Amino acid sequence: MPTAHQTRVQVPPTTSANGSTDTTALTLAFPGSPVYHGEVTDATVTATYQAVLDGDQNDGGHTFGTVNMDYAATPNIAEVVTGGGGLPGSPWAPNIASPPAGQNPTDIPSSGVEATNRARGTGGAFNGNGLESPSDGSARIGHQRIGSLMTGRSS
């Protein structure tokens, strides 16, 4: 559990000085602000953003339609079909072979699968297993909550 909490909307009261604000002056300048009336608090902001991170979100058809924020439809790497003829060379990379003549991707030979896999690295530059199937890690990531995330970790 993280020990450092970020300031959201409930900032400690301050007085005017170099490098700081004056809480009283801000309250007078923005009398209609819901922050200064206690209508918007750290708890309400956290609850709102957690609701955005959970379940299905629907933008009403504006751009994406309905998107599941819990990563419910992530692919299973073990089910990715590889080969020639325009298929990927591995679940992580395209088939690196070239068509024997011309530029038609359906002519790419399946021998490129072996070359692709030989060139594959051992994962990413970040913590964790960079080659883990998204279907394996998505449930763990989808259950994370604001306040329980650790810097540099997704589990």
Q: Please, could you describe this protein's structure?
A:
This protein is mainly alpha-helical and 155 residues long. It has two domains: 1-53, no CATH class; 77-132, no CATH class. The protein contains four helices and two strands; from the N terminus they run ααββαα. The chain has helices spanning 23-29, 42-53, 112-119, 134-142, and strands spanning 56-58, 66-68. A two-stranded antiparallel sheet has the order 1-2. The longest helix has 12 residues, at 42-53. It is elongated, with a radius of gyration of 25 Å.
Catalogue the unreliable spans: none
Structural class of the helix and strand makeup?
Answer: mainly alpha
Approximately how much helix is present in the residues?
Answer: 10-25%
The termini sit apart by: 11 Å
**Structural domain tally:** 2
Estimated radius of gyration: 25 Å
Number of beta strands: 2
Strands side by side in the biggest sheet:
1-2
CA-based shape:
elongated
Strand percentage, roughly? under 5%
**Largest sheet, strands/sense/barrel:** 2 strands, antiparallel
